[in-house]
UniProtKB/TrEMBL annotation:
Annotated Gene Ontology cellular component terms: mitochondrial matrix
Listed name of the protein: Citrate synthase
Source organism of this protein record: Tetradesmus obliquus
Gene Ontology BP, a term: tricarboxylic acid cycle
Active-site residues, Swiss-Prot/TrEMBL: 315, 361, 416
Amino acid sequence: MVTTAIIQATGAFFRHGGGSFGAAGQLGAALASGGQRYFSSIPATSELKAVLAQKIPKEQARLKTIKQQLGSKSLGDVTVDMCIGGMRGIPGMLWETSLLDAEEGIRFRGYSIPELQAALPAAVEGGEPLPEGLLWLLLTGEVPNKAQVKSVTEDLRRRSAVPPHIKALLEALPVDTHPMTQLVTLVSAMQTESEFAKAYASGIHKSKYWEPYYEDTMNLLARLPTVAAMIYRRTYAGGNYIAPDPKLDWAGNLAHMMGFDDTSALELMRLYQTIHSDHEGGNVSAHTTHLVGSALTDPYLSFAAGMCGLAGPLHGLANQEVLRWILDVKADVGDSPSKEQLTKYVQGTLKSGRVVPGYGHAVLRKTDPRYTCQREFALKHLPHDPLFQLVSQLYEVVPPVLLATGKVKNPWPNVDAHSGVLLQYYGMREENFYTVLFGVSRAIGVLAQGVWSRALGLPIERPKSLTMEVIEKKFGFSPAK
Ligand SMILES: CC(C)(COP(=O)(O)OP(=O)(O)OC[C@H]1O[C@@H](n2cnc3c(N)ncnc32)[C@H](O)[C@@H]1OP(=O)(O)O)[C@@H](O)C(=O)NCCC(=O)NCCS
């Protein structure tokens, strides 16, 4: 007989069919309370949802006025370069949660990263912001107080039960499946839980779409740390899973369930989860989630689609590529290379027809402030780490080499240039996993915007595509035969 149990002793729930899920004591306690049915434990109301509900009518009215009074105004021309060059610079979507300035970097609801670090409540006095606070800010546009952040942490904890089939599905995959493929598989499979899909199927009025979308958002966010940690422990720790600690916050628990309890590692995870969350709407993972969601696909499948995009090496997978590349640099030139040795190595990477991972950006034209805040974290917590020193040296060497190509528009480091070195320092050495951590964070931004997209009734996305022939004919251009 398959035993059914919920590991409840720790305050969050993993239901499983017998076997080794959690420490033996916790498993024993769970079995004592066993036989219960899995339930998703959705609270009837939450303060966050109530604040959001108050804001929505005003924003709906605002959008209606914009449509009526400004709908026919032009936001600029579209050049042929923009059309064939990945739609760079075309203002083609509404994205409320964050805005990217090419020179200054990201602002979340108007707040820069240093401002967030000062304004959002922290787990440790003067420490890194709690991502739950950022979620509140992205959803409501307001900086929450400590009690409000605590209410989100508790709400997420109550919702954190992972459906039973997820563990079985995870363990059915080959253990060497890339962690991003595992994430996409498990997130898609959790779609069985979608409140939005159920509500749509039973004919919910469109004015109410945002409510089940919000529930899915909170449930999915609540479960992602467990799912990510399960992937990590199964792939790299023989399936020896760790139960959550009910005293910990959302990001702290992610580090804990992965097996890292150092207080600075928890702080790093809080910072990491905050800064990777949102980068306005046009990047591949955000845009994909938005595009798929615009067909009224539920948040689970939309987010899984976004994660397929994040798994690309020019986007989120770059953090994995960066660490590999840095370790290759180290293997080639040693721990304390000269500037000349590093310059030669970077030139070699370019000559071999590859990109220098962690450098460049489609929009940014300065050093990414997400890089800068990670550098500051390193200066505070690991100033003497040899890999950090190498990253610092590369910061001086790479930009002039990229500039010398004459084609790279932004030679400066992006978020991915730094994250792997920090994770590595705390023992998270498996770089294949890094993009999963990025993905957990990205969920905060894209799902918060998803709630607003449904609340504002944004339509299905459908840009116009052209053929080369149409472009040539439009400008009276005859191609050489
Ligand atoms: C992020 C990225 C995809 C942006 O691409 P983009 O908007 O097309 O960038 P640009 O307009 O500056 O590209 C112009 C040229 O410079 C090249 N280039 C840009 N960044 C480069 C880099 N880091 N290393 C080598 N070449 C680079 C491009 O590949 C392109 O070459 P091509 O004309 O031969 O195709 C690009 O900078 C890149 O590949 N970076 C490395 C991967 C990375 O770190 N990704 C994470 C981004 S957060």
